[in-house]
Amino acid sequence: MPIPASALISDPEELARLTACAPDVLSKVHALYPIRVSRYFLELALRHGAPLLRQILPDALELEDRETPSDPLNEENLSPVPCLIHRYPDRAVLLVSGECASYCRFCTRKRKVGGKDMRLSPDLLAAAVGYLKKTPAIVDLLLSGGDPFMLTDRQLEQILAQVRAISSIRIIRIGTRMPCMFPQRVTEELAAMLKRFHPLYINLHFNHPEEVTPEAAAACARLADAGIPLGSQTVLLRGINDAAPVLKELFYRLLAARVKPYYLFQIDQVRGTSHFRTPVENGQEIMRQLVGFVSGMAVPRFALDTPGGGGKIPLCPSYVEELGEFCTFTTYRGQSGRYPNTLWPPQEKTGPHPG
Fold it and tell me: 104 an active-site residue?
């Protein structure tokens, strides 16, 4: 079931009428970065205010941020064929859709999502499948975009069938924000179709506890009931979720919806998004307030997707003070301790065997 066009707002003038945004600001931003908001999420955001509204409403600061790179992860140079990104040795990303139900103002692919240069035609899909077939080192494929759930069930099924037929692809993942932005898209029919392509994993994206509505939880349940493991990626956003109590509540709500908090990302260095950035130290302090104080199941990995396409690195604070004969450490409660760091029984030096 495709999303009805009437369920999405892409006209700056209509969005201005429904919000307090200035029409001229919306029009100027829209000329460079497309605008789209689902009516479902806008209604939710209007009820809960700035933490949700700022994620979807254009800001004049997007136009002032000119020094930041537009492609910080070097995706264009890591694309052996269009719409396929091969950054890690054993993983690749296939961009199957150029659209989303709502365009997040902090999007990593802000430069191209919603534009004309991100369409997976049959010829481009054939080229991507051909590359995957001749590159057996790739065993894990992520379908992303845009949002793959913007495709019809039939379109997505055809892509999944071609990918699953590649013998070297062991794992398929789908990245989507649809349960958050338009949960009605996640139907029983969609879940039943996806179930045919196991092992299949879905990476969701929630940033604030108020996004985990009964409708969103029901969408997650339909996917989980189809045997699909669900994880969530959260972006640390200034003034939106950069506080431990907010994230603690989000992560517990996700667990209750059968979604494992997977990553907490330091925001990518994307042009037009710098006003959302927080210092890395803030994220590390938040992690210190989570580790040990909430269930380990509720603690994601704090990470940075390094500029230049170097891949993700963990930014978690270290609790190890020194490594030597003992590993000395500080616990999450600030208590000092140590752990033996030598082999037992001691290894003897080996010499020549007797003749």
Answer: yes
